[in-house]
From TrEMBL:
InterPro entries: AA-Vitamin_Transporters, EamA_dom, EmrE-like
Keywords: Membrane, Transmembrane, Transmembrane helix
Bilayer disposition of the protein: Multi-pass membrane protein
Similarity annotation: Belongs to the EamA transporter family.
GO annotation, cellular component aspect: membrane
The organism's place on the tree of life at top rank: Bacteria
Residues that span the membrane, as ranges: 12-34, 40-60, 72-93, 99-121, 133-150, 156-175, 187-207, 219-240, 247-268, 274-292
Organism for this UniProt entry: Emergencia timonensis
Name of this protein: DMT family transporter
Subcellular location per the Swiss-Prot or TrEMBL entry: Membrane
């Protein structure tokens, strides 16, 4: 049964990544409407989601956990720490600046992954895929309306946090991609979320953030955030590592701004501006361009291995 699941994931992984991106695009909306502090949001998000991944692994894959090397345990904890920092900076960002600016700045993580891929791992990335990523990011800037007045002094702290969220997301993706080459998907998802939960638990104690006492509405939104974003997005991203490169996941994840606008139209009745519509088109074209030339590179690599 497990082999069939892995076969399905491997076969449709690129489509699955897109659906995960759509799920993750609701994160900013959830974060902006939840009144609880960011530390509590992250703590409860991980606490509610952990059993979904912990129970199957602890019941059926304890042998797998024993076989994981100390090195991979350490790097998995590092990935979880980066995920913690991403969540913490992102939820603080959307409380301090507008979602438009935060989303565009946080979408810069493909550049972080790109730099690490080229200069740290010394891997070759084609010019055309890079052009696709840059085109998608330019589309994101158009969606923001190129209104640099949004980067005002009053929003500066939120804008900085949004950029830091992008940096930590890129590091989280990159480390996770390397660990997933040696650790199974379900075990890695459990361990990286456990590491992230530990960071939030420590953060709750250090900052003396209350565990309980928030509104019923907040708890309902946090449950929604857990189901849609934690399980539907981040868990899926981690499972996809090992089948696609972190740069691929990161590039498509930068397209969240498009699905966020579509959700705004459907659920909030927010009509996009002409610049936002053009920006969405540019993002989609950039991602399709990136996907097409990445696919060509993969085919060429496969043919080279056969020869």
């Amino acid at each position: 049964m497990e082999n069939k699941k892995q076969g399905f994931l491997a076969r449709y992984v690129k489509i699955i990544v897109v659906f995960a991106v759509v799920a993750g695009s609701s994160s900013g909306i959830f974060g902006s409407v939840i009144e609880a502090p960011s530390m509590a949001i992250g703590f409860w998000r991980l606490s509610l989601g952990m059993p979904v991944f912990a129970i199957p692994v602890l019941l059926k894959q304890r042998d797998v956990l024993k076989k994981i090397s100390i090195k991979n345990y350490i790097w998995t904890f590092v990935a979880g720490a980066f995920l913690f920092l991403h969540f913490f900076t992102w939820f603080n960002a959307v409380k301090l600046t507008d979602i438009g600016s935060a989303s565009v700045l946080a979408a810069l993580h493909p550049l972080i992954v790109l730099v690490i891929t080229i200069f740290v791992f010394r891997r070759k990335v084609g010019v055309r895929p890079v052009m696709g990523i840059i085109l998608a990011l330019l589309g994101g800037a158009l969606i923001a309306g190129l209104d640099f007045r949004q980067l005002s002094a009053s929003n500066f702290a939120g804008d900085v946090l949004a950029f830091l969220a992008a940096m930590f997301m890129g590091l989280y993706f990159t480390v996770g991609n390397e660990v997933r080459k040696e650790v199974s998907g379900s075990a890695y998802v459990f361990l990286v979320f456990l590491a992230c939960w530990i960071c939030f638990a420590v953060g709750m104690v250090v900052t003396k953030t209350p565990v309980f006492g928030y509104s019923t509405t907040d708890y309902v939104y946090i449950i929604g955030l857990t189901l849609v974003c934690q399980i539907g997005a981040h868990a899926v991203f981690n499972l996809c590592f090992g089948h696609v490169d972190s740069l691929y996941v990161s590039a498509w994840e930068s397209g969240e701004c498009v699905s966020a606008i579509i959700m705004g139209v459907i659920f909030l009745g927010q009509v996009p501006t002409s610049w936002q519509i053009i920006g969405c088109a540019v993002v989609v074209i950039g991602l399709l361009y990136y996907n097409y030339y990445t696919g060509l590179a993969e085919k060429e690599a496969e043919e080279g291995e056969k020869v």
